[in-house]
């Protein structure tokens, strides 16, 4: 299995790839390609796919509706970038299209699904429950709140009936792959809490966690939450931890200190085999 980070907040100093506050990951397994999220802008998605020589994306999982995970979607609809755009299937929860905002200091900023993309034009499949994609690959969204230290930031809102309500991220979905070594869990931002997600996945599939890959939304988190998260993941004893995007620099450093060679810091263009 080959995993390539297409877009992340960081890129190497000598890299030809672009970075932005966004996330996109490509999983290639058994002659199949699954992309998790599309970054924030079509420009960065087009450039990075071109540099990496990726010309076909068969399936795309939209982890949630925020624009730093959906904004590059338009690039995948361009046949000059993605050879068969009409055949690319998009998996998402219906609520990913609900208007989303960041509200701070009484000012609201739209951070939802790109308004330039008509969702009706997508070859999409709604996902509202745990769903098998075949060959031990699942979309997982039935996350239970099992620990008390992973609150959703209150500034993240969703517009319902003309009111801005706290976003409970009912639209958040994750990719899970079952392997001989255990479960591989791919998260976009883990707004519901990376530990909650891992506990829920482990309980649902009755198997051990082998790999944790993606964002963990620990950027600007209090030190105690970072400590609690690292300790909880240590107890799960995964073999691989690859974190980036919204994880934040302090948490990335903490993961590196605790997990050593098991830890892979994600950046645009970082690839590895599992």
Descriptive account of the structure:
With 274 residues, the chain is α/β, with parallel strands linked by helices. The protein has one domain (2-273): Metallo-beta-lactamase, Chain A (4-Layer Sandwich), CATH 3.60.15.10. The protein contains 5 helices and 18 strands. The protein has helices at 42-52, 67-70, 194-205, 223-236, 249-259, and strands at 2-7, 24-29, 32-36, 59-61, 89-92, 100-104, 107-110, 124-126, 131-134, 137-140, 156-160, 163-166, 174-179, 182-187, 209-215, 240-244, 263-265, 271-273. The strands form 3 sheets. Strands 8-5-4-3-2-1-18 form a 7-stranded mixed beta sheet, with helices on one face. A 7-stranded mixed beta sheet has the order 9-10-13-14-15-16-17. It is globular. The relative contact order is 0.16.
Note poorly predicted spans: none
The figure for the number of domains is 1
Top-tier CATH class: Alpha Beta
**What is the CATH architecture term?**
4-Layer Sandwich
What is the radius of gyration computed over CA atoms, rounded to a whole number of angstroms?
Answer: 17 Å
CATH topology: Metallo-beta-lactamase, Chain A
CATH-defined superfamily: Ribonuclease Z/Hydroxyacylglutathione hydrolase-like
* Secondary-structure element order, N to C: EEEHEHEEEEEEEEEEHEHEHEE
Ends apart, CA distance between termini: 5 Å
Task: Let me know the number of strands.
Answer: 18
Q: Structural class of the secondary elements? A: alpha/beta
Helix tally equals 5
Overall pLDDT level: 96
- Percent of residues in helices: 10-25%
Report the principal-axis shape.
globular
Enumerate the strands of the largest sheet in spatial order, edge to edge or round the barrel: 8-5-4-3-2-1-18
Main sheet characteristics: 7 strands, mixed
Strand proportion: 25-35%
